[in-house]
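Bumping my old thread because nobody answered last time. Still need a sequence for this structure:
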C-alpha cells in the first residue's frame, strides 16, 4: 500500500527556483510506460490527438515527453503530485 500523502513542510524546502519564461507547460493524459535502468527512472508521458485521416476523424495517443530523473527527484515529484491531488479532492471554496 502506498504511503499516505503528507503535506510538504515549508521549513525543510531549501531549493530556490527562478523562471526564465521559457520552461514549457506539459499537459498529459497518461503515463503508459515506465522503467528503471542504471539508477534512472524513465516515464513516457502521452496525450491524445484528434486528426482527420482520409476525411474521417481519428483519435490516437502519442508520446509527448520522456521524463527522466533520479530516485530522489522521483520521490519529490510523487510528493508534489500527492499534495496536488489532496488539493484537487477538497471541495471548491473550502478551507484546509
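Sorry it took so long. Here it is:
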Amino acid at each position: 500500500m502506498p504511503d499516505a500523502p503528507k503535506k510538504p513542510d515549508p521549513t525543510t524546502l531549501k531549493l530556490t527556483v527562478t523562471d526564465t519564461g521559457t520552461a514549457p507547460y506539459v499537459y498529459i493524459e497518461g503515463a503508459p510506460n515506465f522503467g528503471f535502468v542504471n539508477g534512472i527512472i524513465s516515464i513516457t508521458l502521452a496525450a491524445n490527438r484528434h486528426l482527420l485521416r482520409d476525411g474521417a476523424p481519428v483519435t490516437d495517443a502519442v508520446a509527448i515527453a520522456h521524463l527522466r530523473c533520479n530516485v530522489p527527484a522521483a520521490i519529490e515529484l510523487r510528493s508534489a503530485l500527492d499534495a496536488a491531488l489532496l488539493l484537487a479532492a477538497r471541495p471548491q471554496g473550502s478551507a484546509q
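The helical segments are 71-89. Let me know if any region looks off to you.
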